[in-house]
Design a protein that fits this description.
By secondary structure, this protein is of the alpha+beta class. Helices cover 52% and strands 15% of the residues. The chain contains 28 helices and 27 strands.
Length: 879
Amino acid sequence: MSLVRAAWYHLRALIRRRRVDEELDLELRDHIARETKANVARGMSEADAHRAALVAFGGVERFREETRDTRAFQWIDNTLQDLRYALRGLRRAPAFAVVAIATLGLGIGATTAVFTVVDRVLLRALPFRDPGRLFALSYLPSDLPFFIPPGLLDRFYLTYREQQRSFERVAAYRRTQFSLSGSGDAARISGAYVAADFWALLGISPARGRAFLPEEDRPGGERVVVISDNLWRDRFSADEHIVGRPITLDGDSYVVVGIAPPNFVFPVAADLWTPLAIRLSENNSTFLPVIGRLRDGITPEQARAELDALGKAMPRDRRDPGIRKKTAATVPLKRMITGDADRSLYLFAGAVLLVLLVAGVNVANLLLMRAASRRHEIALRVSLGANRGRLVRQLLTESVLVAGLGGVVGTALAFSGVRALLAIAPVGSIPRVDEVHVDLRVLAFGILASLACGVIFGLVPALDGARADQRAALSRSGRTVSSPHGGLRSRFVIGEIALAFVLLASAGLMIRSFARMRGVDTGFDASGVVTMAVDLPTRSYPDATRIRQFHAAVLERLARLPGVRAVGAASYRPMGAMGIMGDFAVEDGATLPQGYTVAKPTVGPGYFGAMGIRLVHGRDFTARDDNSAPGVVIISESVARLVWPNQNAVGKRISMADHPGPGDWLTIIGVAHDIVQDRALTPQSTVYLPYLQTDPLFFINHMTYVVRTAPGAVNVPAAMRAALRGVDATIPAQALQTMDASMLDVVAEPLFQMRLLTTFSLLALLLAAIGTYGVLAYDVAERTREIGIRIALGASVRDVRRLVIGRTLVFATVGIVLGTLGAFAATRLLTRFLFLVAPTDPVTFVGTAVVLVAVALGAGLVPALRATRVDPILALRQE
């Protein structure tokens, strides 16, 4: 309250300043009048009496200033005076104002845009009740050859849920997709199976209706569903009476019991939730993500110790002989949601801070040059009694004003910057993307960043300007042969070039990495290939026979489409987001390397031709390779080389069974060229199984149809969708796109990272070029007399040009050397983002140096040409 009262006092005093000044003048006049009257009484004339009173008083103006300086609110008055003076100064130098404000505006705008994303994704708490107590639980083998997200085996989860004491609640969930039909065209919807405690654990209540009841997440429970606010509005037109009505998912009827709150999307992108009814199987186990809310007084370490103890006490499963070591972990839910995105976002934050630093150094250089041009003015003010502290404050006020105006421009740019950032970001690359927007906290950051830039980058020019040599400045009328600020300006330019080198080298590495990705030999021909995926619900397609009949019917229709040259099918297409990995047994008893696994796509006849995959030996699958024929298989070259080196693998036999019986052996009928099967972009060992001989439903109920089109074929995707609808209108088409587009999806995130780093580096390069040009142009203008003398004494045009270009090369060389040292350290942070490129790639570093030298020379060319046009007679007359 005392602060509020003090602020009110200062504000009221400021408002009443004129009245206070009038009262002071009246008091002074009254005092002088009484002294004058006393002098007259002593016998002086009126004029002499008034003069004597003034002399005795000691100066009215001095007393006014001393009195004003004692007022509590005088600092406000002084600040307003400094602001008015700074505004007048900026109006008198519009070019300086525009360049300085625009430079800082770009830096602050880019920084604020990136901060908006970093703040929402990494710094803000999750939008759940008391999110700091939410943890993901994990008890998994630590030596698996592939990555599994944190989770628990389904049977362990059921036991742990009943026996644990560290968490108030634990709840498992499983991401999935559903085919929604009966409400417009059939569509594939992202969703999740969740435990009944899921909603209470997160502290979320449906906006309409209710959450799940405990008995609904048991096997045989009612089929109910909670839908998202977006799905309710987009698919059901915000029907107020949707709660209690049925909808059709995967051919089954589910009753809508609730509508989630707006913007609730956990797990990521889920649009509906249905109870998780765990049915244990003797032959298979499932890893489930599990989250828990920690009890008060329990630490994550204690919870992890209990999880480890309960895991070790679990009866050993016959499918898990205990060879693998398992590790217990409690991971903050926020960390699990953000995943590896924090590395990318912090990388971008570091890059944009370098851009802001370059922009700030550029403005500091502009302020130095402005202070140098005002040396005569500053010296004159000092000679008239202005103290150095007052000058520093006034110069600092001008820099803060410039930074504040730059902050206004930058904040305005941040709105567009955030939209552009989210627009070019690949889907799923930025977690919590629905929460990202500019708010008051971001605006406050922009304001504080502006003020910080004004103080930090304006302090050195202000101190340097206030220390100007008064006698030298006045004697030379502000013109010197060499500026006292030249060394500092040069160091600033060198710093800009060094920072730009770090950013350019980083962007160059990302560009080379992306080029290597795009240049990978995938082993197949993606040109002219269109894909379409389907998921068949178990209710409508309960057995392998029905599923194979469906695929055969769709493939037959696709083959008859105009412009189609070849068709095929695969359970998981190359470079897709999913796949099946596993091992196999060899008939002759050969032992495979420990941990050796292969991709196991299930494909149909014609697939290799449709995808342009070359068969090195043997033959393709045919329609005769069905479940009535002997089992066959096709392997990739790397499998053949590993298992049967220097032999023809055709005719050999392998088995997918753990303990093969006589009927489990599959004869190898072909060897295919290795292809890039997954998103690691490296050729992968693969075993191809014919879907016509495959009975397990999870191998064949998801299928991607591959269509190779003739050149010039049009409307193929629409025709493919119509063909699918002609077989079953309730099955939605998925991933209906060209194979080229699918491959772009694989490199979408590296492309996004490359674009951002390239944008930031080009911005830094532009600012460094502007800074170099500004310093050289100012030096040429300041050294006009020196250059004129050189020309008068016989210096040639080439000598004058060499003088300026030589200075440019010194800036560039020193900046590149310092930048190289910084880049060697900084680019190591890019190691995990690079593909087949070393973080100290010499080609990139040399190329970056060449670019910077070229840009620096370009920036110095105009000042060099201007220097050669100096008239020696006019230059000498100026003195």
